[in-house]
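[Meeting: bench + compute handoff]

Bench side (C.D.) handed over the final construct sequence. Compute side (W.E.) agreed to return the predicted structure before the next meeting so the bench team could plan truncations. Sequence as handed over:
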Amino acid sequence: QNVLSEGFCSISHRSKKYEVVHQAAVENLRTLLKIPANFHVFFLSSATEAWDRVFDNLVEQHSFHFVNGAFSKRFYETGIELGRKSVCREALLGKGFDNIEQTVISANTEVICLTHNETATGVFLPNSDITAVRNANTDKLIVIDAVSSLPYGNINFNDVDSVLFSVQKGFGLPAGLGVWIVNDRCIAK
């Protein structure tokens, strides 16, 4: 209601008014999701755009994907469509990954992509699995698609380098806003 009455929809993204709203959004996300100081928050048009940005900015050639449903499969296919040498380990429909830490991931893999909660099947990836993947692959960037788990899926940011989501699911907001959270390792890449 205040958005329309205050003319917010037509303010410039370069204005002081926008800067205040932007900073408040970042600070509130940091508090809500317990985002550490070495992570940066970017706003995009969608989580699908964030997938593209992952490949544009973090993957020169090789990505590895844990696929356990339609959305994680689409993330994997996006890499192939963008000319990357993406490979995957695929779980049976509706199932998680047994012995995830034993997954053989090529040494030339730059980024490992996981889906925290697979929208299509409802399979939730336990944080212990994310920790196991991190411990087995300390030299690789780990990206978590958390579209259907945040703000409820308590992600340990020490185990990941990037988290992406859109706001229309768990946040219950209108579609058209994606959030891409990246740490300093991603910025350096």
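W.E. noted at the follow-up: The two ends are 41 Å apart (CA to CA). C.D. will use this when planning the next construct.
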